[in-house]
Automatic annotation (TrEMBL):
<dbReference type="GO" id="GO:0043043">
    <property type="term" value="P:peptide biosynthetic process"/>
</dbReference>
<dbReference type="InterPro" id="IPR015365">
    <property type="entry name" value="Elong-fact-P_C"/>
</dbReference>
<keyword id="KW-0251">Elongation factor</keyword>
<dbReference type="Pfam" id="PF08207">
    <property type="entry name" value="EFP_N"/>
</dbReference>
<comment type="pathway">
    <text>Protein biosynthesis; polypeptide chain elongation.</text>
</comment>
<dbReference type="InterPro" id="IPR011768">
    <property type="entry name" value="Transl_elongation_fac_P"/>
</dbReference>
<comment type="function">
    <text>Involved in peptide bond synthesis. Stimulates efficient translation and peptide-bond synthesis on native or reconstituted 70S ribosomes in vitro. Probably functions indirectly by altering the affinity of the ribosome for aminoacyl-tRNA, thus increasing their reactivity as acceptors for peptidyl transferase.</text>
</comment>
<dbReference type="InterPro" id="IPR013852">
    <property type="entry name" value="Transl_elong_P/YeiP_CS"/>
</dbReference>
<dbReference type="InterPro" id="IPR008991">
    <property type="entry name" value="Translation_prot_SH3-like_sf"/>
</dbReference>
<feature type="domain" description="Elongation factor P C-terminal">
    <location>
        <begin position="129"/>
        <end position="184"/>
    </location>
</feature>
<dbReference type="GO" id="GO:0003746">
    <property type="term" value="F:translation elongation factor activity"/>
</dbReference>
<dbReference type="InterPro" id="IPR013185">
    <property type="entry name" value="Transl_elong_KOW-like"/>
</dbReference>
<comment type="similarity">
    <text>Belongs to the elongation factor P family.</text>
</comment>
<feature type="domain" description="Translation elongation factor P/YeiP central">
    <location>
        <begin position="67"/>
        <end position="121"/>
    </location>
</feature>
<protein>
    <recommendedName>
        <fullName>Elongation factor P</fullName>
    </recommendedName>
</protein>
<dbReference type="InterPro" id="IPR020599">
    <property type="entry name" value="Transl_elong_fac_P/YeiP"/>
</dbReference>
<dbReference type="InterPro" id="IPR012340">
    <property type="entry name" value="NA-bd_OB-fold"/>
</dbReference>
């Protein structure tokens, strides 16, 4: 059990027998009346997002989540196969559990897989990954970093908008949370 004052992003709650991950939270202390906590929760594994308000200091049940470092090995049909780095056990995870992370995962890259009671809940990637541009239109003389952007395809097959001066074969950093170009690597 934890208090609503202990909430933080990424914490997994067990509400009415279902698992919910805290996406955002905000402590609100109005001028009149008691304080409360406004949260945005994501249901695991369905991905449904709801807003829920708790009175400040209310006890909520937290779920015991074990975050394990795993290596993404390969894709087999629709499933993604991961290997636990400690036990070397392999786990096939469906596309629903992997979600948007599939766009940014390279084979043999390390990820974090959240487990609850021996069952995988979701896949977490680092905040940024380095990927090689496989195709983009050639840049023109005079293209500058403050100019516009152009679409580029990276080695995982995902599309990223990059500055005009980026060429094929260059390695770039991409933010895995929103898919935006960060810098050259």
């Amino acid at each position: 059990m934890a208090s609503t004052n202990d909430l933080k992003n990424g914490l997994v709650l067990n509400l009415e027998g279902q698992l919910w991950q805290v996406q955002e939270f905000q402590h609100v202390k109005p001028g009149k009346g008691p304080a409360f906590v406004r949260t945005t929760l994501k249901q695991i594994p369905s991905g449904k997002i709801v807003d829920k308000t708790f009175n400040a200091g209310t006890k909520v049940e937290t779920a015991q989540v074990d975050r394990r470092t795993m290596q993404y090995l390969y894709k087999e049909g629709e499933d993604f196969v991961f290997m636990d780095m400690e036990t070397y056990d392999q786990f096939p995870l469906g596309p629903g559990l992997v979600g948007d992370a599939a766009e940014w995962m390279l084979e043999n890259s390390e990820t974090t897989v959240a487990m609850h009671e021996g069952r995988a809940l979701y896949v977490e990637l680092p905040a940024a990954v380095e990927l090689v541009i496989t195709y983009t239109e050639p840049g023109l003389q005079g293209d500058r970093s403050s100019g516009g952007t152009k679409p580029a395809t990276v080695e995982t097959g995902a599309n990223v908008n990059v500055p005009l001066f980026i060429d094929n074969g260059e390695k770039i950093k991409v933010d895995t949370r929103d898919g935006k170009y960060l810098s050259r690597a």
